[in-house]
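User: Hi! I'm a student and our assignment asks us to look at how structure tokens line up with a sequence. Could you show me two examples?

Assistant: Happy to help. In each example below, the sequence comes first and the structure tokens follow. Example one:
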Amino acid sequence: MSKTNSKGVLWILLIFLMLVTAILVRATTLVPMSFEELTRSATAIARVRCVSVHSAWDGGEIWTESRFALLEDVKPDAFGADQRVSAPAGAAGAAASQDHRALEVPASHSILLRQLGGSIAGMHSRVEGIPEFKPGEEAYLFLWRRSGEPYRVLGWAQGTFRVLRDQRSGAARVTQDSAVAVFHEEEREFLASGIRNMPLSTFQQKLRRSLNASTP
């Protein structure tokens, strides 16, 4: 093969690799969603408390299964209750696992999330944007699934709203995992994007209005 042909083949391979990379990046990039879009697109919205977190090896990857006590069906599941569970289940094909302390809750009021990433024996695997949970944490989760499929958090960090309580006053505030502060040159100040430290009652009112607006 001549040097000219070799260079041509190399250029073709380089272009091909660039196209594949662009496709993969696009496939893993989340489209920003407004609160109203999250409310409208979620097949279920639930107020939950994390009960247990279990990480395990499966297919050469670390997966984490989080179980949540269902505190409130804010937007009932459009596909029914087939994803409600009665007991925590370990990940299939686990070679090693790590359980965090579980909290006692009525087993009939639990849901499961199985997500890529987690920690086992000092090894930590994390996928940017996928929310992580700890037992005892309270949150509003905007969930999405197809019929017969398990839950996932819609928009990952975008669909995760943590409820944090002041230890002294007990006052509760809500913060979205994807909330960030961006510096605007024109305003010469940091402006918040997403929901950050919103009083729980204000968040609940906002959610009710958004649900009412999305109802046909």
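Example two works the same way, sequence first and then tokens:
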Amino acid sequence: MVEFWFSYRDRHMEYDEFIEHVQEIAELDSVEQAVGAVEATLGTLGEMLSPKERHDLAAQLPKPLKECFSTWMERPPKELTHPHRFNLEEFYHRVAARSDVRHRAAVRHSRAVMQILRQAVSEGELRDVLRELPDEYEELVNGKPRGPASPSIVEKR
């Protein structure tokens, strides 16, 4: 797996750079596939965050990425005061459906997006996001499955 050694504290990541890194880490064939993975992952994450946390997270990202957080909102984002709650397996299911890929690809894409997001925002902001998510989401952010029954574990072919 490729790792990038810059962080929010060093410099602000640009949109094209974010997409390019996701494409490389997720081993996607095109920029369009990377954009789809980013939109599906951030849009699904946005459903689970409070309006304040969505705003705070989006404030550290380039404008096109900010818009991803409200892609699948049932109502305008500011009106959604009670975020959805679903487990990590459902998260992957939604990402797969929204980006038209299989579960294995959704896991790989989501993990790539979160790896780059982790490097694009401050550590404090990432901690704030994790506080709003069920504990099992830590494995999505950290890239390490919590156990053998984790929905993040997929067989390689």
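Here is something you could point out in your write-up. Confidence is low (pLDDT under 50) at residues 1-10.
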